[in-house]
Specification:
- By secondary structure, the protein is α/β, with parallel strands linked by helices.
- The protein has helices spanning 2-32, 50-69, 89-102, 114-119, 121-127, 157-170, 184-196, 218-226, 240-250, 266-272, 299-313, 319-338, 342-351, and strands at 37-43, 78-84, 108-109, 131-133, 150-152, 175-181, 203-210, 231-235, 257-259, 280-283, 355-356, 361-362, 378-383, 386-389.
- The strands form four sheets. Strands 2-1-3-4-5 form a five-stranded parallel β-sheet, sandwiched between helices. A four-stranded parallel β-sheet has the order 7-6-8-9, with helices on both faces. The protein has a three-stranded antiparallel β-sheet with strand order 10-13-14.
- α7 (184-196) links the parallel β6 and β7 (203-210).
Length: 391
């Protein structure tokens, strides 16, 4: 009996020691390797909108590195799970469902375009997960009571139209011709322009559309030329925006060519080449960051982002990359206060005030899930293939 009891005593002590060691290791691991926070991202990395999606993906990789290098969010590293929707609305929905149901992310940044962003809103709302789109369409976040879980970082098309039409009035243009891509981005800009331009005394003398993959807009521009407008406004992104600009110069239309903020990247200039010179457009301050006064509240953020991005990827800055950087930055700021709770993250996004981002100073509210006004924009002109502020 003594031998039997001794064996059990030894076994009991061994198990106790093992549990103590295991418990100690678990405690140490919890302190040294806390739960990773997963954030999803959906960008148009391939397809017609890849000139937006590629710098957005790269900016996401940049901010992931920056955050983890400084210790993560409250000691938690972040993992960005990036999906390519291929500039396709159906694939955007598939990507969103994967991120929500399989990867269990806390929030989603993107998509890149108005169309792909609009496509996933129903999924976002039903799943009750915060989303911060990188696209411009006002309809992405409006009406707000039907977009409780949806936010966005790019300046809204309504804000851009406000800035652009102010410029047209200041330059004494009266008769305006308007051309747009035949997609959600172009249709959104066209709708707002048709509504707002007449309020400022502008007469729309022509409205024309073209496809995102069209290779020649000469027929539409020939019609435009015949009505003799005072200025021509175009709502598009590269490559079609660049092709149209080349056609515009070939037809020797001699009135100002005003683009939307959809051309705020080097890709537009690279594709349009010298035809880009003379183009004027409203855009955020990233493209002209170094020329800003020292006391501008965005300057330090803009200059650092531009330098870090260009050093890491050996590519010029892009306003679209800036939108993705902002989308993730806003999500991170919300998680810092809310922790890994989707409902609380959404609530904190809605409370963000005075946040200096790449696209502007964000002031969110229950009535405004974008938080940017026209003071987030400047008018820029392309001269000698460079961006120059015109005001």
């Amino acid at each position: 009996m003594k031998i039997f009891a001794k064996k059990y005593l030894i076994l009991f002590l061994s198990l106790t020691l093992l549990l103590t060691i295991t418990s100690g290791c678990g405690s140490s691991d919890q302190k040294g390797d806390q739960e990773t926070y997963k954030i999803g991202a959906i960008f148009d990395i391939t397809g017609p909108a890849s000139s937006l999606g590629i710098p957005e993906r790269d900016s996401a990789l940049l901010i992931e590195k920056e955050i983890n290098d400084r210790g993560g969010i409250n000691g938690h590293k972040i993992q960005l799970i990036i999906e390519d929707n291929e500039s396709n609305e159906t694939k955007a929905v598939q990507a969103a469902k994967k991120l929500i149901e399989v990867d269990k992310v806390l929030a989603i940044a993107g998509p890149s375009t108005t169309g792909t962003s609009m496509a996933i809103i129903d999924t976002i709302q039903k799943s009750q997960i915060p989303m911060v789109s990188a696209a411009a369409g006002s309809a992405i976040v409006n009406p707000v009571d039907q977009r409780k879980w949806v936010f966005k970082s790019a300046q809204s098309d309504s804000v851009v139209v406000d800035k652009l039409t102010d410029y047209l009035v200041e330059t004494k243009a009266k008769k305006i011709a308007f051309l747009s891509m035949n997609n959600a981005f172009g249709d959104g800009g066209r709708k707002v322009f048709e509504t707002e331009a007449p309020k400022k005394g502008l007469e729309i003398v022509a409205l024309e559309k073209f496809g995102a993959t069209d290779n020649d807009m000469t027929p539409q521009l020939t019609k435009i030329k015949s009505v003799k407008p005072d200025a021509v406004v175009v709502w598009a992104i590269p490559p079609s925006a660049s092709i149209l600009t080349k056609n515009y110069r070939q037809l020797q239309i001699d009135v100002p060519l005003i683009h939307s903020h959809g051309i705020g990247n080097q890709a537009f200039i690279d594709l349009a080449q010298d035809a880009a010179n003379g183009v004027i457009f409203p855009v955020g301050r990233l493209l002209v960051a170094e020329s800003l006064p020292a006391d501008n509240p965005q300057k330090s953020v803009l200059v650092k982002y531009a330098a870090d991005y260009e050093a890491m990827f050996k590519q010029p800055r892009s306003t679209f990359g800036g939108h993705a950087y902002d989308s993730i930055s806003l999500i991170v700021a919300a998680i810092e206060k809310a922790g890994p709770d989707r409902i609380k993250i959404r609530d904190e996004l809605e409370k963000i005030q005075g946040f200096a981002g790449i696209s502007g100073i964000f002031n969110m509210s229950p009535q405004d899930h974008n938080g940017l006004q026209k003071d987030a924009l400047v008018m820029v002109k392309i001269e000698n293939n460079k961006w120059v502020v015109v005001e």
